[in-house]
Amino acid sequence: MRTLIIVKPWAVSRGLVGEILGRFERRGIRIEGLKVVRVDRETAERLYSVHKGKNFYDSLINHIMSSPIVACVLNIPIEDPENAIALVRKIIGVTDPTKAEMGTIRGDYGLRIDRNVIHASDSPRSAEYEIPIFFKEDELVEY
Ligand code: CMP
Prior knowledge:
- With 143 residues, this protein is α+β, with helices and mostly antiparallel strands.
- 41% of the residues lie in helices and 17% in strands.
- A four-stranded antiparallel sheet has the order 2-3-1-4.
- The protein is globular.
């Protein structure tokens, strides 16, 4: 099952891309698509359309456009898509880094909820919506 993760500006500028992607690889999860992207406003608004109207929406949009991100499609080798998403959520930790467990990506590297180090699709449906925002089908390699 494919899902999208984004290594966000704070993590890219701190040189944490390899460390973060390595956690998924070491868990046995394959990278099937990978690119460095400077996100424009249209892309940011598509990605975060579910948050439109929330009080943190503007800062969320401005942050993801502030410096390059790394977009990555992972293939989770678990049949039940809900379980596959749950595993990714477990590896990254809960949204608020001050509450995320140590040993998770957000628990180890995050500081502020409005400057999260990683984004991940939170359901099979959002993975289906989010992947094509960054990747054409022929940019993904199944193996
Ligand atoms: P991300 O996983 O990229 O996608 C949703 C983002 O909303 C999340 O990262 C957080 O950075 C941000 N977010 C969620 N809740 C809050 C909040 N209460 N205050 C500020 N930002 C938030």
